[in-house]
Amino acid sequence: REAFHGRRLRLVSSQVGAVAPRQRARWSRPARLALALGLLADPRYDALVAEEIALSDAPARLPARLAAPETLAARLRYR
């Protein structure tokens, strides 16, 4: 917690799905998607993805991968 505050880290989230009606005029779905994809384009996030796993292999490989303490995410390959 000290490192979070001391280094002035930020948490940024984007709701790409449905949002409250009063927010729709300001944040259209394409605008939310563009923001989310723009944030994810930062190469620093690549360090959070442990590996890419084929969707067909996910039932066997994903539980162990996600149980590893150093793993924050795994990328699933659909094709």
Can you lay out the helices and strands and say which pair or pack?
Layout: H1 2-6, H2 21-24, H3 29-40, E1 49-54, H4 58-67, E2 73-77
Parallel strand pairs: 1-2
Largest sheet: 2 strands, parallel
Radius of gyration: 17 Å
Proportion in β-strands: 5-15%
Shape: extended
Distance, first to last CA: 39 Å
Poorly predicted residue ranges: none
Q: What are the salient characteristics of this protein?
A:
79 residues, alpha+beta, 4 helices
Walkthrough of the structure:
The structure is a single chain. The chain is an alpha+beta fold and 79 residues long. 39% of the residues lie in helices and 14% in strands. The radius of gyration is 17 Å and the shape is extended. The mean pLDDT is 83.
Brief summary:
The protein is an alpha+beta fold. It has four helices and two strands, in the order αααβαβ. It has a two-stranded parallel ribbon.
